[in-house]
Write a structure and sequence with these properties.
Length: 226
């Protein structure tokens, strides 16, 4: 049985082990980061626990931001204040920024990612926020970068012509793409730094105008800077 619950201090070692399994060549979340997340926004931090082994098999970390404080081409470090979440802004912010979701490789395709995303959407509805936004790392882009631009690649994924390990799942979960940006993640050879900007809008509070950016990107043939 898998349970999704709020992250506790006793989970920190398990989260570090999870990071090492998912991203063996990248730096893991450290206790100083996880402590800061819980102090600033405890209700935005989730873990998935396998009750059979009492093991952390998934996690999600998020913060609230006022989107107007940022540029669309800002990177992950800027949106998360270098992973510390000290830019968390619950007073003005209307956007839940999804800083991280990961599932242990041995527990993938078991619905754990869906449970974590559901916990986030329920949080957004409970808090009355407008939306969830995040950068979707384009894990498969390096395989076709010699013949497709990053935007062409994303458009093929959105159209269902191509499968992308992360983005295809997020689209099934109700997210939409509203941009494609370079330099989102540094030192990531799989994505070559590229990410799709994705959004899930809270239907409880959204207006027609709130869907405009999604339609603009979908209908725009060539965005500025591309």
């Amino acid at each position: 049985m898998i349970e999704v619950r709020l992250t506790e201090e006793r989970d920190f070692a398990g989260i570090t082990s999870l990071c090492e399994a998912v991203y063996p060549h990248s730096a893991s979340w450290q206790p100083r980061h996880l402590t800061s997340h819980r102090e600033l926004f405890p209700e935005g931090q989730f873990v998935a626990v396998d009750h059979h082994s009492d093991r952390i098999v998934g996690m999600a970390a998020s913060l609230i931001v006022w989107w107007d404080d940022y540029e669309h081409r800002d990177n992950w470090l800027e949106f998360t204040d270098r992973g510390m979440f000290t830019n968390h802004d619950p007073e003005q912010g209307r956007t839940l920024y999804g800083a991280e979701v990961m599932v242990h490789p041995h527990f993938q395709r078991m619905g754990i990612g869906k449970l974590l995303y559901h916990a986030r959407s329920e949080l957004v509805r409970r808090l009355g926020l407008l939306r969830i936004r995040a950068g979707a790392r384009l894990r498969g882009y390096h395989k076709v970068a010699d013949r497709l631009s990053a935007e062409e690649y994303v458009r093929e994924v959105v159209a269902g012509k191509r499968k992308e390990p992360t983005l295809s799942f997020q689209l099934r979960e109700g997210f939409h793409v509203f941009g494609v940006v370079p330099g989102y993640l540094h030192n990531d050879p799989d994505s070559m730094g590229w990410a799709a900007l994705i959004e899930w809008i809270n239907p409880d509070v959204a207006s027609e105008e709130d869907y405009r950016l999604q339609r603009e990107w979908l209908t725009r043939r060539r965005p500025p800077g591309q």
